[in-house]
Amino acid sequence: MPTLYHHPLCPHSRFVRLILAEYGIETTLVEERAAERRREFLTLDPAGKTPVLVDDDGTVVPGASVIVEYLEDCLPPDFRGLRLMPLGLHERIETRRLIEWFNVKFFDEVTNYLVMEKVYKRFLAPEIGGGAPDMDLLRVARANLRPHIRYIGYLTEARRWLAGESLTYADFAAAAHLSCVDYLGDVPWDEDETVKHWYQRIKSRPAFRPLLADRTPGMTPGPVYAELDF
Amino acid sequence: MPTLYHHPLCPHSRFVRLILAEYGIETTLVEERAAERRREFLTLDPAGKTPVLVDDDGTVVPGASVIVEYLEDCLPPDFRGLRLMPLGLHERIETRRLIEWFNVKFFDEVTNYLVMEKVYKRFLAPEIGGGAPDMDLLRVARANLRPHIRYIGYLTEARRWLAGESLTYADFAAAAHLSCVDYLGDVPWDEDETVKHWYQRIKSRPAFRPLLADRTPGMTPGPVYAELDF
């Protein structure tokens, strides 16, 4: 069974967990606090960031976007009836553009601030950056979130799924980040009905269940985190 | 002819320019100052970052890693005798890991600070972040650069090219970032002879010539920037 080094509230880890669950690939999960820079973890991946996938034959695949392309290289086409990377050239560009949008831009502007300030800093020793959340950064993240919600709304109004008419990796990237923000109770769900409906559809998929059951000790999830109808 | 929206000292743009030149794909270059958020540019790519490639048929491909996968999707295997994305599964992981290493980690830790502080801030109006460079950030970037040079040295001592025995996208990603830092005169070339020799080899390729001829108005390049033997 492959092993995934992850953190429960790392959005990139959640993205990979969702994908692996969609593909029905069972995985041993190992919780890694990347900021502690554990030597064995750095040996696996010198960048020292979650997620890192170690496949059955020992192949080490570090980072969400490298894992996506690895799965595309390895899995047969239409594996389990899914085609998360579309065949058409334009749809492929759009899928990859949106994976990048959420895993880099949304992360830099929203998820990274919220998860760092509200989650990671609680568990870190003061000498490596632990402490109370910086309220200014939380405000910045929440302000940055609003245009992103509008952008997801713009996409889901015009299309069934984010990158087009079919479900792709892009939906799972977006949903992974939103699910972290939702755990922290920071998604303004009332802002846009189409975003809510799109998220309800993806949240209702069986692959989402393990994430909705995740609980971080000492942190109660937001009020609608595990609700399919919210 | 395809069009590339780029900035001469944007490392991700340089990476794509090198790749296109290696493939012999002539491109119209349009200089874009992404921080000015020009409306027509944001219409092309809402993320508003260089590089953006517009292909002959109008296909818009935004961002270095999406451009790489687009080229891999479009070009015939062994195009121009090059195989910048290797065939072997492990070599593909390693190539993509290192593209990400330089385009994300090296960028966040080194190039972004140096280019933002020394270049972009000169051209920006004060109200959108222009001004004198922050010397503390320049010190951070230069300190962060040293372990990266050691890491490139570690790789090039064990291998002919960064990702293995053959030239890959990874070498161009690394060289693109180093060439920006070198323009600014900040690469400590004396630190590691193997790094210098690897860079000399890649810098001597014809694809590198246009970059070495680049001059940003008011900024003289570092003393060895255009020298092949330094």
Overview of this protein structure:
Chain A has a four-stranded mixed β-sheet. The first copy, chain A, is α+β, with helices and mostly antiparallel strands and 230 residues long. The model of chain A has no long low-confidence stretch (mean pLDDT 96). The longest helix of chain A has 35 residues, at 89-123. Helix content of chain A is 52%, strand content 6%. Chain A has two domains: 3-81, Glutaredoxin (3-Layer(aba) Sandwich); 89-206, Glutathione S-transferase Yfyf (Class Pi), Chain A, domain 2, CATH 1.20.1050.10. In chain A, α1 (11-22) packs across α6 (169-183), α4 packs parallel to α6 (169-183) and α5 packs across α7. The A-B interface holds A 45-47, 59-63, 65-66, 69-70, 73-74, 89-90, 92-93, 96-97, 100-101, 104-105, 151 and B 45-47, 59-63, 65-66, 69-70, 73-74, 89-90, 92-93, 96-97, 100-101, 104-105, 151. Chains A, B: One of its GO terms (biological process) is glutathione metabolic process. Chains A, B: InterPro entries: Glutathione-S-Trfase_C-like, Glutathione-S-Trfase_C_sf, Glutathione_S-Trfase, Glutathione_S-Trfase_N, GST_C, Thioredoxin-like_sf. Chains A, B: Residues 1-79 form the GST N-terminal domain. Chains A, B: Homodimer.
